[in-house]
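Attaching the record inline, Q. Sequence:
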Amino acid sequence: MSSGTAVEPGAVIVAAESVTKAFTTPDGGALPVLDGVSFTLAEGEIVALLGKSGSGKSTLLRCVAGLIAPSSGTVSYRGTPVTGANPGVSMVFQTFALLPWLTVQQNVELGLEARGTGEAERAERALAAIDTIGLDGFESAYPKELSGGMRQRVGFARAIVTEPDALLMDEPFSALDVLTAENLRNELIRLWEGHGAPVKSILIVTHNIEEAVLLADRILVLSSNPGRIMAELAVGLPRPRDRHASRFEALVDTIYGILTGREQAAATAVEAGATAQPAPAAPGRPAPTPVNTPLPDVSPGGLAGLLEILAARGGSDGLAEIADDLSFEIDDLLPLTDAAVLLTLARIDGSDIELTADGKEFASAGILASKQLFARHAARRAPLVRTIVQALAATEDHTLRTGFFLDILRRGFSPDEARSQLGTAIDWGRYAELYDYDSDDEELTLEPGAQENL
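Structure, as predicted:
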């Protein structure tokens, strides 16, 4: 754990063995979220669970915490199967999860109080934790008096005050502004390297590639729908880590390639100073459906912007370079990349994204022509859009209630995700003039000529 040296993991604290989790849908079906996930978390290491939306990484974290039980498989804490709340872990949540009617000190004391710790000891340990995370002087303040970053510091203090073996963190920086998030990441590393945090290991869930490489000693890359471990990468970089170092950038590129489905990406991890263990590919690839091929949450305008930027750069460039020039995280571009690839307007070539011939045509077309091109590609390549067009065409009046499509989507998504998927499909279809949407009646109506795009 010392600065600038490789991590030598100690005893295994948490072990997940073939963890599978499925939730029950409203119609009684099974919604698979995790499928056969196995990994370990040992003393002296930070492990990142990295994946896009739908990878089940937060569900996996809750299984480790004992907040939910796997459908099959086991989670063990120091060799003992977890059958309830995991006694050796504490959690830091994305949304802070502070009780607004309690002061900072009272919020920090909650975990100790639940364990039956005496009042005097609770106060002493809480004040020490508050001082450790830099909120000395705010003990009597209420959450509403604090900024987002300060509230998350309270969340950290509440988690470490119980001196857990493992600190579990669920997207702990994603609700914060960029500068505050960066400051807290750096402070977390300083505490870890200086042994200021009374924890033996950290397991962090994130969708941010650079965050994972900055913080973790090992990165587990999860696939989506359901979540499986696609690759395990040992980072092997000394701290503090330089985002602009060649090995750092190479590892970011490698992980980006894995997340975008590049088969040889895991093999190139060695060149980035890491080791990779790609998960076995699933036998056969099912035909794309609205459930197994979700729509990326992007607007047609955002997609057009990415394609136009690529065209201006000669038709090809690295995602990392584009993100740097636009002051984005590379993760912010992943949904746009996914949409461009889904619609066959771009392809992934190593760590670069390259316009296809169709993409070049789209990027150079005028407004009306680009809408027509988008309509053709969306109707043919986006399974949910295609399903909507086909279903509307099959009815006598070419109209259907949105509830029909939500029922279909709930077989593979949670209710919120189903609504999000349908919302994206409505935006895409309306832009492409494939169908119209009446929000008052919650009805979709086929536009004349839409079937010609199929």
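The chain has 15 helices and 16 strands. Residues 415-431 form the longest helix (17 residues).

More tomorrow.
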